[in-house]
Design brief:
Strand content: under 5%
Shape: elongated
Helix content: 55-70%
Structural class: mainly alpha
CATH class of the largest domain: Mainly Alpha
Number of domains: 2
Radius of gyration: 37 Å
Low-confidence stretches: 1-11, 27-72, 276-283
Order of helices and strands: HHHHHHHHHHHH
Distance between the termini: 93 Å
Largest sheet: none
CATH topology of the largest domain: Fumarate Reductase Cytochrome B subunit
Mean pLDDT: 78
CATH superfamily of the largest domain: Transmembrane di-heme cytochromes, Chain C
Oligomer: single chain
CATH architecture of the largest domain: Up-down Bundle
């Protein structure tokens, strides 16, 4: 009986010493040795497995240092000021266009061409004029803020320039072949750049010709510069047609590439911070 109880205890003692030696060999710090002892100590509360004890020599006893560096993200594709001004402009443009059609129908420019009452804002010319004048102030103020923001932030220079004729032609060819996939919505193609510049210029011309039509006596010099009152009306109508054409293409492309529509609602993806060299070049 004495012999049988002594031999297991001797084996446990030898195994404990062996484990301590393995742990001391793998651990370089007293803290690591203490941890290995605590692991080995708890291991002998049950059955003994030599393979498990030997594997302790391969266990790291120190917690690796984890670097927690904050990841810097750039601004969104459409910052919140751009989104607000975009949607304000969208609503005001609809008011200006549909009320303008009501004004046009009262004194047509193209004989025989009228707009249906379904598309007009205002039952008759006076109501259409009221809507037009109300929307005019929102459009002028919002448009001015958009121009100031675009130039001050460098957004116009970064997003709309440069425009190369060869790229415009190639983009048109790709579009005609229905190759309009827009994988990277943070980069505008050549046609997009050109259309945005055209509609910005059309909006500015609408303000100028609108002032000439609104106050022809007070701004008689401007009316003369535009070729007279009827010429100013014709230019105003042409500018409206350009903007409507842009809106049709703009909405159609947004529906074909839905992520561009969601981007102007939620802000779009974060842009990578520009390097110092690139910023210097852009400046």
């Amino acid at each position: 009986m004495t012999r049988r109880s002594y031999r297991p205890s001797l084996l446990r003692g030898e195994a404990r010493d062996r484990t301590y030696r393995l742990a001391a060999r793998s651990s370089q710090t007293p803290r690591g040795t203490q941890r290995a002892r605590s692991v080995g100590k708890g291991h002998w509360s049950g059955s003994f497995d030599a393979g498990e004890v030997v594997s302790l020599g391969h266990v790291k006893t120190e917690t690796p240092a984890v670097e927690t560096s904050s990841v810097r993200t750039g601004p969104r594709l459409h910052p919140w000021p751009v989104r607000i001004m975009h949607w304000v402009n969208a609503v005001v443009m609809l008011i200006m266009i549909t009320s303008g059609w009501g004004i046009y129908d009262d004194d047509v420019i193209i004989r025989g061409f009228h707009f249906s009452s379904f598309w007009r804002l205002g039952d008759w010319a006076a109501w259409s004029l009221n809507w037009h004048f109300a929307g005019m102030w929102f459009l002028a103020i919002n448009g001015l803020m958009y121009l100031l923001y675009g130039f001050a932030s460098g957004r116009f220079r970064e997003k709309l320039l440069p425009i190369r004729p060869t790229e415009v032609v190639q983009t048109v060819i790709d579009t005609l072949h229905f190759k309009i996939a827009h994988e990277d919505i943070t980069v505008y193609n050549a046609v997009q750049k050109l259309l945005y510049i055209i509609v910005i210029l059309a909006g500015i011309s609408q303000v100028i010709t609108g002032i000439a039509i609104w106050k022809p006596v007070q701004f008689s010099g401007l009316v003369s510069l535009l070729g007279g009152f009827q010429s100013a009306r014709l230019l105003h109508f042409a500018g409206m047609a350009v903007i409507v054409g842009f809106l049709i293409v703009h909405v159609a492309l947004a529906l074909l590439v839905p992520k561009t529509l969601w981007a102007i609602i939620a802000g779009g993806p974060h842009l990578r911070p520009r390097s110092g060299a690139k910023e210097g070049h852009a400046a």
